[in-house]
Structures are given as structure tokens and as C-alpha cells.
Amino acid sequence: MDVIPVAAEPPLGMLAELTHRCPLHCSYCSNPIELIAREGEMSTEQWKSVITQARELGVLQVHMSGGEPLARPDLPELVQHASELGCYVNLVTSGLGLTAERLDDLIERGMAHVQLSVQAADAQRSDLLAGAKAFDRKIVAAELIKKSGLPLSVNVVLHRQNHDQLAGIIKLAERMGADRLELANTQYYGWALKNRDALMPTPEQLAEAEPLVRAETKRLAGTMQIIYVVADYYEPYPKPCMYGWGARQLTVAPNGNVLPCPAATAIETLELSNVLHTSLADIWYKSSSFNAYRGEDWMSDTCRSCDRRGQDYGGCRCQAFLLTGDAAATDPVCSKSPQRDIVDLILAAPRTSPALVMRKPTVTR
Ligand code: SF4
Ligand code: FES
């Protein structure tokens, strides 16, 4: 298919998914159902080439993520490479596998920031939700990070099974000494979509959360920044997903596939390019996948005639595809979408208590 490139600025950030391997089994995992096997992961030299290309393209922030990036023994080498090129390097981790020695080494090689995931406020709930004995190790990891002087962000995915612990989660992040706490209601992509019925918060939980977060944000101002990401199914307008398709950030999967957003493998109609065959610059500027929903020409009449299109960019393409089968549809979360009834029906369904289907460690390709 001939692609007519849409004008684009250089990317600011790259999410480098070094591996899909992970010691946790979170039911809300937004990684694809089919994970990339260890044998399919790019080598150290291939990743270094990707990082070099990203920097040449303009990327300033490299988020080393996964799966669990600490599962890659070459993580320090990749951190050093990105840092020597002038990138700000952030580690997105479960904390499992982080020792004082490994942390010191990563810091020496230029790692600038850590994002640590937390599942709940106490060990019992946390380990249940992670599907692994992880809580105590996260506490140790947080202590090590704080002791090192590195800035720490704590990331928590919120859902029906932990909203009741929200106050305790904020206190925990405060005790950990987090500089920033991100409380993000679950987005239903990848594995998480399997568990939507069990994870969807109730309207009561959300109504309780908002004043609590507001009060805690005020109390902790100047000590810990709190970011609260709303549960978008309950909102009248969609989120400005990725601040627009192919606008600011790119994701590189463990096998070299380059994604306009971390969940983009969900869009079965999207033809992905791979950095082992095409340069990152060509993929960013010229590929069909990055140009598919860039700008406004792809938008439905509903979005194209709407004065919010510069604010939310028509919402989320992955969500549009997963809920309607058409990635170019107006995000059905939007109250102006002719398909909002899809979301309303999901919200109106009785809240039963299906068992969580835990993320399986199996790799299927
Ligand atoms: Fe956003 Fe489109 Fe809804 Fe307008 S119609 S608010 S641009 S999703
Ligand atoms: Fe892919 Fe929103 S998650 S565009």
C-alpha cells in the first residue's frame, strides 16, 4: 500500500520493551495476549543500534521496560549506551531482581529515575494480585532506591480489587518516600481485557476515590506529586491517548516491532514495521502504521467536526478497534460517538465477581 506521510515532529520518548519475561502475573497486564519468547528478543547489539537510531531521531527519554527489564543481563550496558548518547534513562520495574549491587551499577552507568510498580497496600492483597510473593521485595527495592538518592515514582494500577485500599496505597507510597505516585485506573488492552468484568471499578468506588485523591494531593503538595488517571469508560469524553497517534513517543517491542502505542498490537488491521528491516526514522516518518491515524484526515465526521479534536485527538485507536472493530471510529467512550451504547452496556452489566485470570508466563511466539 502506498503511504502518503503526514507531517510529524520528531519523537521525544521511546519505550524500550526489552523483554516480555516477567516474574509477576498481574491480571491487569496490558501486554499482548501473545508474548514474545526469549529467543525472539533482540540482541544487545541490535538494541544498541535501536537506541542510537532513536537518539539520532530526536528521542531524549528512554524508558527501559518490559516485562521486567532486570531480566536482561545486558540492561547495564544498554543503560550506559543510552546515557552516553545524552538520553534521560528511566527504569520501569517490578523491583524484583533489584539488588544494591545492581542498582549501584545502573546508577554509575547513568540511570536517572526508577518507576516501581505496586499492586496494593498490604502484602496479602498485593501478593494475591501479583500472583507472586513480591510485596516485601518491593519494600526493599524502594528502600534501596531512596537510599541511592535517585528519584522514585510509584505506579499503581487501580481496579475493583484494590480501590478499597486507595488510602493505604497513598500512605504506602508516602512511607516509601516516593517523589511521584501515579494512580491509573486500568486500561482494558491485552491481557487486561480478559478480566474487564472482574476489574471494572464500581461508580461508588470512583465517587469515593476522587475526594480522597484531591485531599491527599493537597496534603502532600511539595512532598509527593499525585497523578490520578480516571476510569475512562465512566467519562463523557475520551482520554487524549498518546497525545495523538505517532506524535510524541514510540514503543519498540522485544522482537524489534515498532509500535505507535504500547497496545497497538491489538489493532489487527495494522501492518507493523520492524526495526531489524527498516530504519527507525523511516518507520517514524514514512510507515503505514505510524501514518494511519496521524493528524486529522482519518477521523470520522463526528470527530472532524468537533471542537475537542485538538484536545483528545479523537481518543484511543486501540480502544476504538477493540470495542467496535474499526480503529478509525470515534472512541466509543465519547458521548458523541454513535457507538457509545457499547460502553454503556458494559457499565450497565451486573457487577458479578468472576475469578481473576492471572497473566500466564507462557510465551506463544
Ligand atoms: Fe473527541 Fe471525537 Fe468525541 Fe469530539 S467527537 S470529543 S474529537 S472523540
Ligand atoms: Fe493505543 Fe490508545 S492505547 S491508541
TrEMBL record:
Catalyzes the cross-linking of a glutamate residue and a tyrosine residue in the PqqA protein as part of the biosynthesis of pyrroloquinoline quinone (PQQ). It catalyses: [PQQ precursor protein] + S-adenosyl-L-methionine = E-Y cross-linked-[PQQ precursor protein] + 5'-deoxyadenosine + L-methionine + H(+). Residues 8-219 form the Radical SAM core domain. CDD domains: Radical_SAM (cd01335), SPASM_PqqE (cd21119). Pathway: Cofactor biosynthesis; pyrroloquinoline quinone biosynthesis. GO terms for molecular function: 4 iron, 4 sulfur cluster binding; cyclase activity; iron ion binding; oxidoreductase activity; S-adenosyl-L-methionine binding. PANTHER family: PQQA PEPTIDE CYCLASE (PTHR11228:SF7), RADICAL SAM DOMAIN PROTEIN (PTHR11228). Interacts with PqqD. The interaction is necessary for activity of PqqE. This is PqqA peptide cyclase. It comes from the Bacteria. Binds 1 [4Fe-4S] cluster. The cluster is coordinated with 3 cysteines and an exchangeable S-adenosyl-L-methionine. SMART domains: Elp3. It comes from Amycolatopsis xylanica.
